[in-house]
Design goal:
By secondary structure, this protein is of the alpha/beta class. It has one domain: Aldolase class I (TIM Barrel), CATH 3.20.20. It is built from 11 helices and 7 strands. The chain has a 7-stranded parallel β-sheet with strand order 1-2-3-4-5-6-7. Helix 10 links the parallel strand 6 and strand 7. Helix 1 runs parallel beside helix 2. The chain is globular, with a radius of gyration of 17 Å. The relative contact order is 0.12.
Length: about 240
């Protein structure tokens, strides 16, 4: 929840010149709902996609204050689902995440489904059980043919906005063993390898390259650093290799 629409326009204008020359990386900008339309207009034809930060699972109805997938689909290609802040601050559950993932797929939106453990869970050696449960329940009932369209973001809650990033090797281990392992058991190994898995949690210019060098990490879900042109453009360039 950062930036007015006017501020978002300024940021995107500054980002455009640096990002449009980058080849070899899929770039998505996910502004707050109120800025989606002007940002989408600015990015039209740039090759940079637009995403939303959240959505409701119903197409319409008496859900005052919510935004539906059909409303987003006109302007967005992606939608973030189950971000840790939605889970911890707004009570989102694995069941709700699952309903949103299915609704996104129905409307040809690419869900970026977030999973990750809290500090207490990490210190209790519960990372595997928590993350595997979130993957299983978040994708429950999702048909195999839809799985390659999904993006999963591993964002350890203890690393978000704290400046305390997971180690690159540690994040890669969770992604390869727990996330892809769970996908392999749910579907098959081939599908597990097709799913793009991102790392999110205090990603910045100084550490992005370490994460992208890991075999299992396909990209980053960038938070605070995406609000700073001098940080975000180098991160994207590092992802492009």
């Amino acid at each position: 929840m950062f930036m007015t629409t006017a501020e978002a326009r300024v940021l995107v204008a500054e980002l455009l010149s640096g990002l449009t020359v980058v080849k070899g990386a899929d770039i998505v900008i996910c502004p707050p709902f109120i800025s989606i339309l002007p940002v989408a207009a600015m990015l039209e034809g740039s090759g940079i996609a637009v995403g939303a930060q959240n959505m409701h699972w119903e197409d319409s109805g008496a859900f005052t204050g919510e935004v539906s997938p059909s409303m987003l689909a006109e302007f967005c290609k992606y939608v973030i689902i189950g971000h840790s802040e939605r889970r911890t601050l707004f009570g989102e559950t694995d069941e709700g995440v699952n309903r949103k993932v299915k609704a996104a797929l129905t409307h040809d939106l690419v869900p970026i489904m977030c999973v990750g453990e809290t500090l207490a869970e990490n210190e209790a050696s519960a990372t595997a059980s928590v993350v595997s449960r979130q993957v299983r329940e978040g994708l429950s009932g999702v048909e195999a043919n839809a799985v390659p369209e999904i993006v999963i973001a591993y964002e350890p809650v203890w690393a978000i906005g704290t400046g305390r990033a997971a180690t690159a090797a540690g994040a890669n281990q969770v992604i390869e063993v727990i996330i892809r392992g769970t996908l392999g058991r749910m579907y098959d190994e081939s599908l597990a390898q097709q799913v793009r898995v991102l790392y999110g949690g205090s990603v910045k210019m100084s550490n992005a390259g370490e994460f992208f060098q890991q075999a299992g990490i396909d990209g980053a879900l960038v938070g605070g650093a995406s609000l700073k042109v001098a940080e975000f453009i180098p991160i994207v360039k590092a992802a492009a290799g």
